[in-house]
Amino acid sequence: MPEGPEIHRAAAQLRKALVGRTLLSVGGEHPATAGRLDGWVGREVDAVEARSKAMLIHVGEQVLYSHNQLYGRWTVNRATTTPRNWKRSLRVELVNDQHACRLWSASDVMLMDAWEVNGHPYIAQLGPDVADLRTTVVEVRAHLEEARFQRRGLAGLLLDQRFLAGVGNYLRSEILFEAGVDPSRRLGHLNAAEKDALAEAAVAITHRAYLQKGVTVDQDTYDTMRGLGVARRSARHFVFHRDGMPCHRCQSTVVHGRVGGRRLDACPTCQT
Ligand SMILES: [Zn+2]
After folding, report:
1. How far apart (Å, rounded) are the C-alpha atoms in residues 13 and 24?
2. Is 190 within 8 Å of 181 (Cβ atoms)?
3. What digits encode the pLDDT tens for the residues 67-84?
């Protein structure tokens, strides 16, 4: 399942293909939008944005909301390319003179007015979106003080989109490693310096994953690991999918754990 950086990259791709261009045709078969987007033909797309895992496409005062859940996927092709024939149903299709953008399989799609966006049940409950390059450490640090999170364990908390939006499974392991904190600790037990480190790590690691296409280590480390024949899924991270391998910082063996049925890898020495 894509995490925040991947959704924000998809948004950037759609933005490049759609914003400022006039829509020549609009289609798709989702019941929430079928026929209701006809008024978009002849109009320009004003903005495309991601909010955690939701995609928002703005045309005038209207916003097309979609959440990919497990199977949804946006594709961007040249307008002249024949759409792929695969086992996915076409939900929404937006075509201009250059590009055809298509949403496949997603079931959570709706058309709303711009003023309704912040009140949408999914969007209203989101914490700061750390995959958004505009999100700052100060904003995240302030959110870490909210009383409702203090008794929660970090491992569960980091996958809660109300805490930090945009964080998924690989980012959880990587942020906790970068912050130097043990996943089993509760947020409220961290001292101020540890909370500072967590806020800084959440922003730095997630922004890096966005800019480096899912790579959370620095480019040199990644290139060195790839050169040594390490698989991409391990080479791109500090600890995630690196269990049994030496930590890049201290050489201790990275350990594998599972929390809530999902992989959580950590360095027993660097994370305390
Ligand atoms: Zn280490």
Report:
1. 19
2. yes
3. 987 788 999 999 999 888
In angstroms, what is the span from residue 66 Cα to ligand 1's centroid?
40
Q: Answer yes or no: 3 catalytic.
A: yes
Q: Ligand 1 (ion): which residues have CB within 5 A?
A: 247, 249-250, 252, 267, 269-270
pLDDT at residue number 147: 98
Vertex 151: Cα angle to 187 and 242 (nearest 5): 45
- What pLDDT is stored for residue 1 in this prediction? 64
Instruction: State the pTM of this model.
Output: 0.92
Whether residue 146 lies in the annotated active site: no
Distance 251 CA to ligand 1 centre (A): 6
Looking up tokens 């989702």, which residue turns up? 30
Q: Which domains does the chain show, CATH number per domain?
A: 4-124 (3.20.190.10), 137-266 (1.10.8.50)
Which amino acid, 161? Q
Report how far ligand 1's centroid is from the alpha carbon of 238 (Å): 9
What are the residue ranges in the chain where pLDDT is below 50? none
Per the annotation, the verdict on 15 as an active-site residue is no
pLDDT given for residue 30 in this prediction: 82
